């Protein structure tokens, strides 16, 4: 038995540790996750192979239909574009936030958070107004002489990409900022003293050190884009449907839970594969080089 000496010098046994040992302490959390997350997903996936008849007919129909394959292509193309554009915009913003004075950084963070807290439906409708043929963006482009006639920026994948990029930017800026902020500025100074120019400092020092944050943010944005529903349905239209809209149509309009579950399983498998790839290549890297 472990002992300790109290203030009077007497030897007394250590008090027993409170709380359950082993899995007892996590059982409530495991039960919560199982009941509210794992069980509903399992039921939905079971219905994908049991309805309307047992077998893999729903998956064969998804893979064998050119219409469904086009929807899959739309989903992955838009998600990939949104991820790449968000990275290209989010990295300079995160770097600027990391080197800005603290007061200015707080103001910009407040703007980012306010954009995230604003109702998603309201933001999407705002983009519908801005992107329409008579909207502010087309009027500005015509007024500047860049175009002669209004561009078609809504009811297509262009509008979906613009709207989703705006919504996803905070989700890539925040993890990038956290990683870049931890990078020791003396590392870049040492590279410059060794003869590296600005481009070499960026590509050989800053980008490799920031790679864990870039990978985490890109994975988050891509996975969230795969399952987005509101923005694609309002800015894309029925001719440019994405997978989340297809699942909603299967479940709500057609009451076809089997096909809806099969499409949902595809999203789940893609998400798990992407997460496994991230863990394999960048999961063990130390953010910020520390």
UniProtKB/TrEMBL annotation:
UniProtKB keywords: Cell membrane, Membrane, Transmembrane, Transmembrane helix, Transport
Bilayer-crossing regions: 20-46, 67-89, 159-180, 205-230, 250-277
InterPro entries assigned: MetI-like, MetI-like_sf
Entry's Gene Ontology cellular component terms: plasma membrane
Domain ABC transmembrane type-1: 72-278
One of the GO biological process terms: transmembrane transport
Keyword Transmembrane helix: yes
Membrane topology: Multi-pass membrane protein
Statement: the UniProt record of this protein carries the keyword Ion transport: no
Compartment list: Cell membrane
Family: Belongs to the binding-protein-dependent transport system permease family. CysTW subfamily.
Name of the protein: ABC transporter permease
């Amino acid at each position: 038995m472990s002992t300790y000496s109290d203030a009077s010098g007497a030897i007394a046994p250590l008090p027993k540790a409170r709380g359950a040992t082993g899995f007892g302490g996590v059982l409530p959390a495991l039960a919560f996750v199982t009941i509210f997350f794992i069980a509903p997903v399992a039921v939905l996936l079971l219905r994908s192979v049991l309805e309307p008849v047992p077998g893999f007919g729903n998956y064969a129909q998804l893979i064998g239909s050119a219409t469904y394959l086009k929807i899959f292509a739309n989903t992955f193309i838009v998600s990939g574009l949104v991820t790449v554009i968000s990275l290209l915009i989010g990295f300079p913003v995160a770097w600027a936030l990391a080197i800005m004075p603290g007061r200015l950084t707080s103001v910009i963070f407040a703007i980012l958070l306010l954009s995230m807290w604003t109702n998603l439906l309201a933001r999407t409708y705002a983009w519908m107004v801005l992107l329409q043929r008579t909207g502010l963006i087309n009027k500005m482009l015509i007024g500047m002489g860049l175009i002669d006639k209004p561009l078609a920026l809504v009811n297509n994948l262009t509008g979906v990409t613009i709207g989703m990029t705006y919504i996803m930017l905070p989700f890539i800026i925040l993890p990038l900022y956290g990683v870049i902020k931890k990078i020791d500025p003396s590392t870049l100074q040492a590279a410059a003293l060794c003869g590296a120019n600005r481009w070499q400092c960026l590509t050989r020092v800053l980008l490799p050190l920031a790679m864990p944050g870039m990978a985490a943010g890109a994975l988050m944005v891509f996975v969230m884009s795969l399952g987005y529903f509101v923005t694609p349905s309002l800015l894309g239209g029925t001719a440019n449907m994405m997978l989340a809209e297809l699942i909603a149509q299967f479940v709500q309009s057609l009451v076809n839970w089997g096909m809806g579950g099969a499409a949902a399983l595809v999203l789940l498998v893609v998400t798990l594969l992407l997460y496994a790839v991230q863990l394999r290549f960048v999961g063990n890297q130390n953010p910020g080089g520390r």
